[in-house]
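Disease resistance R13L4/SHOC-2-like LRR domain-containing protein structure dump, as promised
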Amino acid sequence: MLQALGIRGYEGSSYPGWMMSGGPEVPECLKYLSLSSCSELGRFPEHSVLFSNLRTLSISYCDWDYIPDNMEDLKSLMEFNIISCLNINSLPTSMSKLKLLVNLYICKCHCLQSLPTALPQSLRTLEIRDCHGEYFSDIGHLNSIGKLHISNCTNLQSFEAELPQSLTGLIIEICSNLQSLPTVLPQCLQKLTVENCHRFCSLPRMPPSLQYLELGSSNLKFIRSCQTDGHQNYENIRHVPNKKIRYY
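structure tokens r here:
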């Protein structure tokens, strides 16, 4: 039975008829669908067996202005990937109705300015790469997220609000304008990585839960401060049992 399907370069103005029908030609066991370099197709087909059973949806290199606003029709969706969709500037609020969504991955969506004010409470992993918007002013309410990965988001300077208290892993890399983390980190945080953030110069006190800390920077003054007994940065990480601190 067909479980994975990739569609590339489709130029129709709507989804093919076989995807919208409930006939015998619809692969009811389809779990993974990839749409790449496709024209804008409008709303997801309602009452489609194919879409209602999907576990993973990947949209990449599509010249779309928006993601359809009827995300709630993807009732079984657990993973949603949006890659190199350069015109999308927002995500639909209906994403909050994806009750099974676990992983959200956003990469190279340069016009995307913000995340929806509400995301599913089922969300466990949020990864944002190579994007230029401000995404992190209001994610503290996402108390199901365990892992947050932020990479090459050049407009990120600081976190204006608390991070989700459920967070156990945080990776921040190549965010050239980031200067600091929130003054209070989640009390469940176990692993923290901050690398290649060259303006980053100040560490808050790490929570007792933190087991592993990795810091990498070309800012020699910052690196030395993390290794110098008595400096506030050093004192804030002294109790972390496993540390990897490097200058490059």
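The helical segments are 17-20, 49-52, 220-225, 232-237.
lmk if u need the other ones
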